[in-house]
């Protein structure tokens, strides 16, 4: 039997007993109020805790990437500045209600990176100008052809130009660079040609609108470039460099973990997992890289980058890094699989595999250093050579497998007369052969990345390490001159902090 | 000696002879004009040919994806419709110059897919409403606090709200769904609170603006949904299905090509390359899938999809397909590498590898059929079973390698007393072991994809094949009833055409 609970304010039971009489829990009226209140409180607390969590998330984002919080402040500042056109009488008299367009431009065109802002501003200005001119032209033609035909000509022109411009936004070359411009073209053309039907001083209106947009865009560009600028080029450069380091860490960590030498892994637990899974960021970085490279092209010379810095080469390097990441993904999964190689084989191969993986990741790390310092490395060729040696050693180990351990069909298989050797079934060497071949493949892909980085270094005219050192020593002899090397180091540190 | 050419209107030579006297080619004046004309013509022809190529590209895009051209026409139509607010006197009297906002809404919010349009429209309407209400509130407070403090309060509120809303756009959950809404919030709030300083009938202005935006958004939604609608959900469904087919074709093609049975590949040359490289589309489809799934959530029930169709499951299926693609990428590269396995081994393994790859690709094709018909398949379990059998056969072949061909350290190595067997060095079996293991890994990943598709089929309540068949036979018995099966087939065909 189930006991009826006493109304203690804790759990309450309502029981239907088999004979049909329903047991009732008598609840005083104040109690039911209390229950409603409890439910309400639960809802409110739940809602508040969700909001609290949201703010916590926002706060942690702001702490992790203060640049993003600063971007918010920059937008606020730009809007406050542009709203002065309303508050200060002489400014307002100049532009009047059209100041709205300046505000709108700031809201719409102010982007996170300098390149994106420039791209949007140029697109907005060009699109507005072209469409405005075309709109005035069409308006003039429509005006000449009599009152009856005017709305028809205007309608047809809006239909045709809007359809053509909208479709052009699907063409990849237009989409990549002038997507926003095409939209603004449609917007301005429709507004000018359609509202021209009701507005008399159309030319004045167009002129005012263009000048307020010019005010808005210049304010945007100034704010985004002068206060803590975030350069798309810089971000792309940092992203690629970071990806190299992540791949190196993942590769190293995964091989070391497989061969059970956990002591060498710096981080443990969650952090170690994070390091091992670093390659996942590289797998899906294509879209970001393309957007960044696209915006970087709009940026003027800044920091260590010239105006015509070969941003396209970054995309190629990124593509090769992604290819490495695909292989590392396969490697990670295979090292985590259940089929284990026999201990003796693992021990035998660990030396070669770890040597190859560490020399491979050293090459990746050196590539990251090359990118970071923007200096051609004298060591890289030697390191690639070392990596290739490690590849050959691993291949040698695979070849010599048959010498040291004859592969028979069972562990208790044949023993050759003159050699006493362990016999391991072929199936058991498969994981080792597989992992070794993957490592060799990764090394080959890394070598291609090195070629691509060299190509980038040539096109971007990275300095020679020797030239840099001699400059540094010159600077040490003439301590009064500003040290270029140190400056560069400083820039590098700033970049790393960024 | 170089001969001076006669002025024949063809090639002309100008030679500096060593003693300093310069030989002159006498060109009649008309000729130099001709040359300038030629240069100009070259420039114009080059320019025209570039434009021509651009139009050719656009035309081929329109032919390949007519939906995109239709989208252009739809935008043109919506703009023509909304511009009637200017041309028709009673309509214009109703909204006046605010009709501009309706035009602007159509240009900005009309997107390619229904989901994207709905998302933008809802965001625009909500953002405008919230910001308008808040702006009016702030305006009232500022109004109460005296002429001196009014601009200060307005400025500070614009700064704070704009900064907060801009920053919120970086928070992933906001960015995914309300990015546009946040932008519109900033825009409207700034406009209302700032222009409120100069405009007297602010409430009327806000009301007009909101009503014109409502007109614009409803026009957008009607046009996008009624004329050849493109559903983001449909596109996502088709994308995933298509990716399955592409992976199947790549996997099949690559293995068959490696084992040299080219006769089985349907397409040759460029087309064959295109088929083989189909997996590349899958590698980078993550961003597209996420965007599509995000928009699909906004869409009402349409075609075979309910309102709460489990779009998230598509992302999971997509992720597993991408994992297959990573492996296929590694496989493709390894089958194209220089290190070839010896002919005898290749021949021995071709049977097993092709059997595994074809059963794997069959599973993928069946998954595509499941998705296409939205019917649970009774065959799929059998096919997975077959695939697993093929895996075991391949593993068996690997095991039996040592029985049939003893692996020694050279081709001329030892021969065992009682067995006459070919001796192949271990290094030469490495490629086969590697490719086989990759194939086994791909099969494992495909099996996980099958599980995920089953999960999707359960959540989306796909029909049972048997139920469907019985319904079909019922329909055949009552031929007067509309055939649901046929209808479904028709939808499928339409989908495939799309």
Automatic annotation (TrEMBL), chains A, B:
Entry's Gene Ontology cellular component terms:
membrane
> How does the record classify its membrane topology?
Multi-pass membrane protein
Family matches, as PANTHER family = ALUMINUM-ACTIVATED MALATE TRANSPORTER 10
- The answer to whether the entry has keyword Transport is yes
Which of UniProt's keywords are assigned here?
A: Ion channel, Ion transport, Membrane, Transmembrane, Transmembrane helix, Transport
Which residue intervals are annotated with compositional bias (Low complexity) in the record?
472-488
Which regions span the lipid bilayer? 72-89, 95-114, 121-140, 152-171, 178-198, 210-232
InterPro entries for this protein: ALMT
Q: Which BP terms from GO are recorded?
A: monoatomic ion transmembrane transport
Quick check: keyword Transmembrane helix in the entry? Answer: yes
The organism encoding this protein is Abeliophyllum distichum
Protein name per UniProt: Aluminum-activated malate transporter 10
Q: What is its main location?
A: membrane
Region (Disordered), start-end ranges: 460-498
Q: Which family does it belong to?
A: Belongs to the aromatic acid exporter (TC 2.A.85) family.
């Amino acid at each position: 039997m189930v006991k009826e609970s006493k109304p203690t304010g804790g759990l309450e039971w309502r029981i239907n007993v088999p004979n049909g009489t329903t047991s009732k829990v008598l609840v005083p009226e104040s109690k039911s109020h209390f229950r409603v209140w409890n439910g309400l409180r639960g809802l409110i607390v739940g809602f508040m805790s969700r909001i609290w969590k949201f703010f916590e998330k926002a706060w942690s984002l702001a702490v992790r990437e203060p640049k993003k919080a600063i971007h918010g402040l920059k937008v606020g500042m730009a809007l406050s500045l542009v709203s002065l056109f309303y508050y200060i009488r002489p400014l307002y008299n100049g532009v009047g209600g059209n100041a709205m367009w300046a505000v709108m431009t700031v809201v719409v065109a102010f982007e996170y990176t300098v390149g994106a802002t420039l791209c949007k501003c140029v697109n907005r200005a060009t699109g507005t100008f072209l469409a405005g001119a075309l709109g005035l032209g069409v308006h003039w033609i429509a005006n000449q052809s009599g009152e009856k035909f005017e709305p028809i000509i205007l309608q047809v022109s809006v239909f045709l130009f809007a359809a053509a411009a909208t479709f052009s936004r699907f063409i990849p070359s237009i989409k990549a660079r002038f997507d926003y411009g095409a939209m603004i073209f449609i917007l301005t053309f429709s507004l000018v040609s359609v509202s021209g039907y009701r507005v008399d001083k159309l030319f004045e209106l167009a002129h005012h609108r263009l000048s307020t947009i010019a005010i808005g865009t210049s304010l945007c560009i100034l704010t985004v470039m002068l206060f803590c600028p975030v350069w798309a080029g810089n971000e792309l450069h940092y992203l690629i460099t970071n990806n190299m380091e992540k791949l190196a860490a993942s590769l190293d960590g995964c091989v070391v973990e497989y061969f059970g030498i956990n002591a060498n892994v710096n981080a443990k637990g969650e952090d170690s997992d994070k390091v091992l899974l670093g390659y996942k960021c590289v797998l899906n970085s294509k879209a970001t890289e393309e957007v960044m490279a696209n915006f970087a092209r709009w940026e003027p010379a800044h920091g260590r980058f010239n105006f015509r810095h070969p941003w396209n080469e970054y995309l190629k390097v990124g593509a090769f890094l992604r290819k490495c990441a695909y292989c590392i993904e396969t490697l990670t999964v295979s090292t985590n699989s259940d089929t284990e190689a026999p201990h003796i084989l693992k021990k035998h191969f660990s030396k070669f595999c770890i040597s190859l993986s560490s020399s491979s990741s050293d090459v990746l790390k050196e590539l990251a250093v090359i990118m970071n310092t923007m200096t051609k490395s004298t060591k890289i060729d030697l390191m690639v050579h070392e990596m290739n040696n490690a590849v050959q050693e691993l291949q040698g180990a695979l070849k010599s497998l048959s010498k040291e351990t004859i592969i028979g069909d069972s562990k208790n298989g044949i023993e050759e007369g003159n050699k006493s050797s362990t016999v391991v079934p072929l199936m058991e060497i498969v994981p080792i052969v597989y992992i070794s071949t993957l490592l060799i493949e990764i090394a080959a892909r890394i070598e291609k990345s090195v070629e691509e980085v060299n190509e980038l270094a040539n096109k971007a005219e990275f300095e020679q390490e020797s030239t840099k050192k001699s400059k540094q020593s010159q600077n040490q002899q003439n301590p009064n001159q500003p040290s270029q090397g140190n400056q560069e180091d400083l820039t590098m540190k700033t970049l790393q902090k960024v």
